[in-house]
Write a structure and sequence with these properties.
Blueprint lengths: L8 H17 L5 H13 L4 H10 L6 H26 L3 E2 L2 E2 L1 H5 L1 H19 L6 H23 L8 H26 L4 H28 L2 H4 L5 H4 L5 H9 L4 H6 L6 H13 L2 H20 L6 H14 L4
Antiparallel strand pairs: 1-2
Helix pairs in contact: 1-3, 1-4, 3-4, 3-8, 4-6, 4-8, 7-8, 8-9, 9-15, 12-14, 12-15, 15-16
Length: 323
């Protein structure tokens, strides 16, 4: 299990159970299938989404078996989107290992991602989950797809602005973070007011998390991040650091480079230089702080319990990642 949860032994053990549930549900008779997908599950990442679902459930009538299965569904949906993202972005690394698309080819990776989607729905049929939660899952999958479509539409154009960016990442990342809390809370019969608060916490954590992820494209290195860096730039995705920098770049230096359809190494280096020069990094960090403050304010509204304290500490850890 990820070192991220080492201070929370009970939750860490539950996440191991979730991982085992996933492995059981993707088990196949073909060795190449097991060898291709299981390493992605084993690497595990931080497993934030299933952890948030379990934490949300602990504010109500907690059914460990039922919620662990649902947490597995959420993580499998996330894994499927990662596999497809790596195809689109032509990423070589995922979670510190060679990506499925890089090792086995894009065609194989498409089918692997589709398989995880189908298996996640099979897992949903094992318990009687609320109709409202089934609708919520469908809505969020739609939001994720629309976020990716919007992002792809604005490739290689400096016309993407702050509002468009916020709309993209709220669908791509924040929606699934919020959903994780909501699913756990609703299945545990929490009151509607508490469900909404938890959903807002997830949304704000998700927004801050994605902005930090976008910052890492400019400030991180592949070994520490565990995936390819500068990939957004290379694929023509202009995220918040660029958007903020362009706003302060009255000379239009950035826009001139960005409106090309491809970049060489010198272009990438120049863009990063200009993003730093025009405060794209610093202004993005300020927005991370704003979303973080909102998340903490909502956490303070939660009833006192161990899960509330864990949430406080987890948010601190996430926000103070190296970026």
């Amino acid at each position: 299990m990820s070192k991220f949860w080492k201070d929370y032994s009970e939750l860490g053990e539950e996440l191991i159970c979730v991982k085992n549930i996933i492995k059981k549900n993707i088990k196949g008779s073909d060795i190449y299938f097991k060898d291709s997908i299981e390493p992605l599950v084993e690497q595990g990442g931080k497993m934030l989404r299933p952890a948030f679902l379990l934490l949300g459930g602990k504010f109500g009538e907690y059914d460990a078996e039922k919620l662990q299965n649902l947490a597995g569904v959420v993580e499998m949906l996330h894994l499927a989107t990662l596999i497809h993202d790596d195809i689109i972005d032509d990423s070589k690394l995922r979670r510190g290992c060679e990506s499925i698309q890089s090792k086995y080819g894009k065609d194989f990776a498409v089918y692997a991602g589709d398989y995880l989607f189908s298996q996640s729905f099979n897992m949903l049929s094992k318990y009687e989950y609320t109709t409202e939660n089934m609708k919520n899952i469908s809505k969020v999958i739609t939001k994720i797809c629309m976020g990716e479509i919007r992002q792809h539409y604005f490739r290689y154009t400096s016309k993407v602005d702050f509002k468009k960016y916020i709309r993209i990442i709220s669908g791509k990342t924040a929606a699934l973070f919020a959903l994780s809390f909501i699913l756990g809370a609703k299945e545990s019969n929490c009151e509607d007011g508490l469900v909404k608060i938890l959903g807002r916490i997830g949304y704000n954590i998700g927004m801050a998390f994605q902005i930090i992820d976008d910052l890492l494209d400019y400030t991180g290195n592949a070994d520490k991040v565990g995936k390819s860096v500068q990939n957004d730039l290379k694929q023509g995705y202009y995220t918040l650091p660029v958007i903020f920098a362009m706003k302060e770049d009255k000379k239009g230096e950035l826009a001139y480079i960005l409106d090309n359809s491809s970049f060489n190494k010198e272009d990438i280096e120049k863009i990063i230089e200009l993003v730093k020069k025009y405060n794209g990094i610093e202004n993005s960090k300020k927005l991370v702080q704003r979303y973080t403050v909102r998340a903490f304010k909502n956490v303070e509204r939660l009833p006192e319990c161990e899960s509330k304290q864990i949430l406080k500490e987890v948010i601190e850890k996430l926000i103070h990642r190296k970026y």
